[in-house]
Amino acid sequence: MPDQASMRFVDSSVRDSTRILCDDRVLINECCSLSTRAHTFYNTSPYLVHSLSQPYPCSIVAFPGSWVADDWVPVERPPFGDAEVDSSLFPSLKSVGSGVVARVNAAFLSSFQRLLICSTLQSEVSRTMMEGKRVIFCGHSSGGAIAILASVWLLENCTQSITPKQLYPICITFGSPLVGDSIFSHAVEREGWSCNFLHFIMSIDIIPRIMLNPLSSYKEQIQSVLHLLSPNASDFSHETVQRSNMSSFYRTMLKNCLSISSHQACVFMGCTNSLLGTLTSFVELSPYRPSGTWAFCTSEGQVIVMQNSDAVLQLLFYLMQLNPQEQLAQVAYRSLNEHWQYESKLKEWIVRNGEAVIYLGAEIDADGLDVGNLELGKEARLRLRAAMHLEKQRLSNQTKIDQNSSKISQALSSLGQYKSTLELRGISYYDSFKQQRNLEDFNANVKRLELTGLWDEIVEMLRRRELPDCFEGRAEWVNLGTIYRRLVEPLDIANYYRHSKNEDTGSYLLKGRPRRYRYTQRWHEQAQRIEVGSSSDSCFWAMVKELQFDMGNNKAYVDVKERLLKLESDMVNWFNSGNLGRDVFLSSCSFVVWWKTLPEHHKSVSCIRNMIYGEGSVSDC
After folding, report:
1. Could you tell me the pTM of the whole model?
2. For tag attachment on the chain, is the N or C end more exposed, with fewer CB atoms within 10 Å?
3. Torsion over CA: 325, 330, 335, 339 (sign)
């Protein structure tokens, strides 16, 4: 364990998540060596496995990189070669509230899918976990990209597992290219997985930046680059690099990185220049973004660690900038040469007992930016401060929102009492609110409106990325949102149809349902790892109203039979799970009154018949 005095901790959350840098230097060394060695077995083995007993029992699985352009560049998917993730493998890789699915490099995704199908990886991982050992995925170059996807895949399985004390995997990469877009990065952070990913990167290694370029700028040269970087290359030198026109390639990459870093800086620094929108309309900007924890290795042996995706993106550009004393050809050569320096540089760092680790995070103050011996100019430091200040502002916004939770709980408690009182009187919650005949109904509407303002503010802040990525995964807000949705959405539905908004706007479910309910429902479904749309119990009254309108507009029973049977089946499940109130089955309830008008042959075999007529519990449909 290194002397704590030799370390400068800036953000406790980053420090904790990267404790591996302090405690597991042997593991880092083994991962780096095995990742390099795996390249040798590319044609004979899809991965190498090595077991360790220290610092804890684990199996290291190292994936080799590929030096074939087709494994990097899916030419049929311009402009950036990205594709939606396979939701059956990666159900969490999405924006929960909006439902937008993450995108990743299609070539890397295909390689990983083939690996799952054609190799023994799944059985190897299962055996390791059955033995109570942790799985460590690692890789150098594109092997790191496969390690990232394998780690997310196993994290998904661990999250869904009912096995207690499941050991989550760790992913350690060296010079890995970027894999996913901003949704990918957001999902990894939301699920609390960022601490499971540690990406080492040399200052100007070309490979971690290569996905920031459109395919059109490198698809013709990627094979030349991979040929130079191949472990079997025998002619890597200044002269061969210069002959391969790498200087031009490096200049193009620098230009593309400048465009995307400037655009992102304008976004998180609050630039209102109209040219910002114009830029994206004619300049293709890469969707790929950093995710997880990044460890930048400097030429002087320091390791700069951060999890802030915006800050990492800025460093990826600014560390590439030319030194006035260097020729472009020299920098292009170094950018390739550094891709094979991880093993030697990390061994030097480990020999020095892992000293000089600098952690940068959201708790940094305005003048406290410590980037060690990185040579960064004023503009670069300004952007790094702005990126970190934005994360600090998001945390501050979250604190303010947290302070509203007591207001929300009090309002929900008041509405809960309103509902209970009505049920004791034999009155349906929905019907009483819709009629608005009493003072208590008016007061309930006031509470509904208060809650609407509070929840709409949360949703809009999420849409503007003004809250931390982890907010949608916080159990207290998922639970509060579920209580809110189930208690208050029936009142919103009652208000919608009381004012005949369906006549102008259309169906509540298709046109009128507010984002606050769609978001909170998806939070619950993601937290429970259940199918999207499966917890639509709060929309019960909207489903009833649509059935009533359809049958009232001369639709025959046979035309709505399947929907009606589905609703009744769902009612059984919702009632048995406590998500549908007993007031729905009161004799005076408008649903019961309507249901009794249905054909006798339907009512006689209905699974909710007993509850309708007060003859016992609901039966299975």
Report:
1. 0.90
2. N
3. negative
